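Bench notes, bay 3.
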Amino acid sequence: MDNTQKGKITSGSHLSYWLETTSPIAYSALEKDLKTDVVIVGGGISGVTTAYCLLKSGKKVVLIEDGNIGSGETGRTTAHCVTALDDRYYEIERVFGEKKAALIASSHKAAIDFIEQTSLKENIDCEFERVSGYLFLHPTDKHDSLSKELKAAQKAGLNIEEIELMPGVTDKIPCLKFHGQAQFHPMKYLKGMCEAILKMGGEIYTNTHAAKIDETGVETESGFKVVADHVVVATNSPVNNKYVMHLKQYPYRTYVIGAKVKKGSVPKALWWDTGDYSVNTEIPPYHYVRLASLNDTHDLLICGGEDHPTGIAPEKKINEEDRYSLLEYWAKKLFPIEEVVYQWSGQVLEPMDSMAFIGKNPADKKNIYIATGDSGNGITHGTIAGTLLTDLINGKENELKNIYDPSRFKIFSAGKTFFKELAGGMLAYYKNKSDESKPVEIGKILVGEGKIIEVDKEKFAAHRDESGVLHILGAECTHLGCIIKWNKDEKSWDCPCHGSRFTHEGKVLNGPANTDLEYYSKDRVIKDRRKQQRSNPATKKKRSAENQDEE
């Protein structure tokens, strides 16, 4: 379902189950200058949790969000609250060592505890439930990976065991059982947290775009200023960081379906496979599954996966819009699913060494902080951000500081995986900058299509919407100038270099870009083309010769 039909703001054309089953969390836009202790940019799990924790510590807080609360990636998650991380513990131990691997495991456990305790304390009915999680072997993976993970996760202090029969699945598949995992409704949780923030005297402003961010605070697109002692940028991909952080992480699109299953046919649990090594041996895309309540007769089996680097799905031979059928095909082999009633996608930032970046922004003033690099574990990483940033801002020692420090540089210990992704991003940048687009006639762009067109060596992005209206934009991402790609599934223009995304009208959906694409009318493009032709010496010479012939 297109989000415009519901009047809800979200970072894609599809509405997630969470956004569909809650009212928009919207407040008034900022229309005055303010002074505060901390200004937070971003109203997802990281920004809202940070605001809550800072207020609890006695700070004055202002939070601004350019859409509605949760309208970015938090509203598009599947809301797994886990210590079973996207990346294996044996890899985490290799990169960070045993002691830090244990701290990492305990930080995610503490994040789950925080969500549970805060929900109880603030009376937030967000459907929080403790469930077990099951990591099972993908057919392309080796059983040795489970053995190594069992050993490393137990050393890290997790309650984990190997079992022979996985609940909910009839096939006998080797798996590990992670105790003490959880799930919840992320939008209901954010709504309750926002109510608590307002009760404590915090201020929240939505539909307020931060156009300028520096050590003095934030200036909005409307020209209002929030002066603050500290600035937190919690925008998934940091919009205040032009280069450094985007050399340390890489963006992926991930896909989700919600399918009906009869109540009682599948137990409440979390499931993840170990990843499809036939697709990518370095970062194998994996599937992740959970249940949510749908109605009196059915539950909703929420299944995600089929990831690919942002902006280059066609290069991977499978278009964005075709990924959902692959998810359905996979889910049907294991679970008794019926009709698929939801589908959506989200963006994941894969950091160089598996851990999020939470702390002071590198090469910036000491009072500017960021939270990014969710690595597919955005709920727990976002919650860790709230508690860790609060300690850093209050000058309190925290043993997690160095682990999540955005200035850390573990690119060499991270290994060849990250080098391949970094090289891929740089190659995409140069390829897109120099790529010669095939000529496309504007009149031949069909409804629903998006094409890169070229007028006198200048590239434009053209899309014809469902009403037949043609929208023409500048084709270079406003972050670093990469040529954008059309995402037919979410009806967005995506940057294959660093993951910026824009609506079909050029409005920013995802950072690191923080400026909209320039919007052109069809007449203006044609007029500019004719103007360039008239000023072209070769064209002038040809026109002069034609005039002489006429005489």
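Next record in the batch:
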Amino acid sequence: MSFTLTRQKGPAATWDDFLSERNKKRKRGSNLNRRVPNKPKLGNWVRTLAELTSKLFLVGVVGYLIFAGWNFLISTPRFQIQNIYFQGNNILSDTQILEWLGPVKGENLIAIDLVDLSQRLSKNPWIQSASIRRNFPQGLEFKLTERVPYARIKKDQIYLVDSFGVTLSPEKPEYRHLPLIIMQGEKENNFLEGKVLHSLKTMHYFNKLSFFDNNPLDAAKLIGHSRVLFITLNRDIQIHMSMDRLDEGRKNFLLILDTLEEENSKIQMIDLSFKDQVVIRNRFKQSSTLFSAKSQTN
């Protein structure tokens, strides 16, 4: 008779077998989970859809409130323009400015385009700049800077121009004291080039001298591209100058001013267009007198 002896496992070996079997079951379960796709739960979809719907509804409510509020602000009579104030307009009247702007009263103060109003005003030749401010609840305030007439210029008729050569309007009686520019074959952009402007400054400078107290220069006639002829108010004295040497001519005039004042009533023409010399023609003599500006300085 034979016997097979079975060796009993110890507690440590039994615990190892248990852990090994449990790990095998976990691996099998993990493989099964990978093979079978997870099915989304219906509750999650419903919850997401409800949240999205509530957000869209909230956005719609806010948008409607903004739209309704804006419509109320631009349609309520409380903000209709009734009071308009102007500052800085000394030449243009309030009525003239309003006629130029067009209908403004009754417009909504909030909806009115201030940039458009400013652009409309800038097209008026008398207005150099304009700023506009809303005065709630029903007012507009305009602050204007007007152009200042500097001279008169003769084209097809006589116009007023400012110091930049901008044509303002036809001549007005209150500005007939301003110097008159007579164009002869000159382009209007000569004014912008600075020649005419410099000539007018020379005229203003001469009129401050005692020689012209009773008979000031009041007209400038442009001859060609480089000469200017100044004429006095009584039209009895002419001063010729080169627009390229206005400063030099003015200095030469000052050098012989004492001599000129002694024979003021006899002088018909003074030519300052030459370099370092002055030519004077007397009214009662056919000959001319030549003064050297250099000799006067020695």
